[in-house]
Amino acid sequence: MVESCDNANESAEFTATNNTTATGDTDVPVVPKKSYLYLFFKMVLDFLFIGFFLSSVLSYVENSNQPLIRAARKPEPFFAENSTVRDYWSGKVFSGFQDAAYYESSFFFFYAAWDRESQEARAEMEIVGQFFSESDVLIAAVNCWYPTSDCAKEFGGKSGAGNILPVFIFYPKLLNGIQYRGQTSAQHIIRYLL
């Protein structure tokens, strides 16, 4: 028991001598600055982690019932580069109408590149284009599905209020267009245009 009292006195003397400041005051304990900085940075990191976690949970909860929307793919040419069908694959329908002014008449094929019926009509339009390649009839195709295209904006191909694609329209010189509603075969279209 005596030894434990001696040890307690020695430890009290040790802390008393080590707690003195540079001025010699023994009332104020000296705490190294490193421990304050360490605690401060640890608290900041803890708050950042908690903030990140809460913002992740909150953003998930807010957006959990909204459908995922992907941007539309950029349009690509629907017909080959050497095709006799003039392809306005970016949907610039007004450029097509300007080009049609140089021809006696024109036949426009409005399509959606992903649509099966449009893809099947592509081969038939190639035959029609080859047939009229030496004539004064413009055979043109316009992508009317790409959302930001002139065709989709003007004719509402994607909104559901517009026509169901593919659509074929014959434009005689200086007259309004006449929609072709016949079979989608080259033979029938050629007979219609003649």
Instruction: Estimate nothing, just give the exact number of structural domains.
Output: 2
- β-strand percent reads 5-15%
Strand order of the largest sheet: 1-3-2-4-5
How much is the radius of gyration in Å?
A: 40 Å
Number of strands: 5
The computed structural class is alpha/beta
What is the oligomer described by this structure?
A: single chain
Report the CATH architecture of the largest domain: 3-Layer(aba) Sandwich
- Give the overall pLDDT as a whole number: 78
Task: Name the CATH superfamily classification of the largest domain.
Answer: Glutaredoxin
CATH topology descriptor of the largest domain: Glutaredoxin
Biggest β-sheet description? 5 strands, mixed
Helix content bin = 40-55%
The CATH class of the largest domain turns out to be Alpha Beta
Count the DSSP helices. 6
> Which regions are unreliable across 5 or more consecutive residues at pLDDT < 50?
4-21, 157-161
H/E order of the elements? HHEHEHEHEEH
Termini gap: 124 Å
Shape: rod-shaped
Textual characterization of the structure:
This protein is α/β, with parallel strands linked by helices. The chain folds into two domains: 2-63, no CATH class; 86-193, Glutaredoxin. The protein is built from six helices and five strands; from the N terminus they run H-H-E-H-E-H-E-H-E-E-H. Strands 1-3-2-4-5 form a five-stranded mixed beta sheet, with helices on both faces. The termini are far apart. The model is unreliable at 4-21 and 157-161 (pLDDT under 50).
